[in-house]
Every structure is written in C-alpha cells, then in structure tokens.
Amino acid sequence: MRQVALVTGSSRGIGLATAEVLAKAGFAVALNGPADNEELKSAVAKVSEYGGPVVAAPFDVTDCTEYAAKLSCIEDTLGPLTTLVNNAGVGVLQRGDLLDVTEASWERCVNVNAKALFFLSQSFARRLLSRKRDDERFYSIVNVTSSNAVAVAVQRSEYCASKAAAAMISRTLAVRLGAENIAVYDVQPGLIATEMTAPVIESYQKRAEDGLTLFPRVGTPAEIGAIITSLATGKLPYVTGQAISADAGMLVPRF
C-alpha cells in the first residue's frame, strides 16, 4: 500500500519542497495552507507533476476543531494516513528587544509553532491508534522546529520559546507513541533560504561564509525535504525521539 502524508504549511518553502520529495518517493500527499488560494493551488499543481495522488487540504492549523473533519476528508481521497509532517510555522511580528515583545507576537508564535503541532499530532495519533495497522507501512510524525529550539536569538525570543516547546513536544510524543510503533522526529533547520528568511538571507550567507556553519553556505528547502523524506520512509531504522540538526554543523561546539 502507498504511504499517505499530510504536510502542513506546504504551499511554499520547506513544506512545498518536502511535499515534492515525498511525492517523488511514491507518497500520496495532502498539501496544507491557511486558505484555498492561488498559492496552494499552484503548489498542488506542482506536486501533481510527479504523477502520484495529491490533494489540497486548506485549513487553519490553529483551529483544533477542524482537525477531525480535515483528516477524514484527506483519508476519503487518498486513503489512510501514515505520515504527519508538522511544518507550518511563523516568525515574530517584529525583531527587537525581548523586553518589548508584545503579547500578540508571543501568542502568534506559540499558537502556530507549538500548540497546533501538539494538538494536530494528538488528533493524528488518535486516528492511527483507533484502527488496525498491520499493512507493514512505516508510520511517523516529523516535526520541523528550528536550531532556535536550542540556540538563543535574543531578537526573536518568542520564536525561540515556541520552537523549544515544539522540540519538547516531539520528545513527549516519541515516548508515548514508541510502543505503538509510531516514530517521532524533530528536524531542526538552521540557515535555510526560504520566503520567511528572504529579508535576512544575504546576511545569513555572509555569516555562513565567515564560519558560522561548517559548510560555508546556507541550506535549501529541498535538502530539508530530503531529510524529512528519509525519516518518513524509515531510512533511519530503530531511531525515534531524536532531534536532527539540519544546520551544516552550526551548533557544533568549537574553541
């Protein structure tokens, strides 16, 4: 049977690249964005070029009341889900002193980056545990957090806090779901060229060339998609609950 994945936040960036690599690997893929707009339709068309089943799944990831209906709709079209990629994420409303962080920016980061990840994973896991899974397919949750789950960016403190929460959620899910043979991973991208980082990517590239990362360059969404697909296809057997530092060695301690 074909594996079936839902990738949140997949109308562009890392999410779209991940959907593409999954489709190339033979997955049926549900692409998610907050609205059924032209960006999501374009993403669906792009992923459909790889020949596998693809469906749009527009919904607001922060609205927990939608999860059951949306997951059912995906399964009615593509078949039983095997894989959840929690990629949807937001940055801060404004970089600056943590003493000036607003409640609105805090809640935005936490609601999308941590709360939605927790409760969508909960809904997905409940669905899997409610039925027999004897088809030998690989089941997993892959959470996309950030290097800032462990490394401080003082001008984006609320973002760091939300990603640290997401990293801990990944570990708690792994502990709960291990006995059910559902793997959970935490992919922590470093300096990646996406729409979100576009305003600062030139400075990131310069810092990478100056030695911030061991490979002297920024990463690409396709590279993160390849990592996620390796995990989702069980290419790291006997591994769960681990953080994958996809950061070109940026956080390796050095003297």
Automatic annotation (TrEMBL):
Organism: Acetobacter tropicalis
Pfam families in UniProt: adh_short
GO molecular function: 3-oxoacyl-[acyl-carrier-protein] reductase (NADPH) activity
Keyword Ribosomal protein attributed: no
Family, per entry: Belongs to the short-chain dehydrogenases/reductases (SDR) family.
NCBIfam families reported for this sequence: PRK12745.1
Classification via Gene3D superfamilies: NAD(P)-binding Rossmann-like Domain (3.40.50.720)
EC numbers on record: 1.1.1.100
Lineage: Bacteria, Pseudomonadati, Pseudomonadota, Alphaproteobacteria, Acetobacterales
Entry keywords, A to Z: Oxidoreductase
Name of the protein in its database record: 3-oxoacyl-[acyl-carrier protein] reductase
Top-rank EC class of the record's enzyme: oxidoreductase
UniProt xrefs under PANTHER family: BLL5898 PROTEIN, OXIDOREDUCTASE, SHORT-CHAIN DEHYDROGENASE/REDUCTASE FAMILY (AFU_ORTHOLOGUE AFUA_5G02870)
Transmembrane segments: none
Keyword Oxidoreductase: yes
UniProt superkingdom: Bacteria
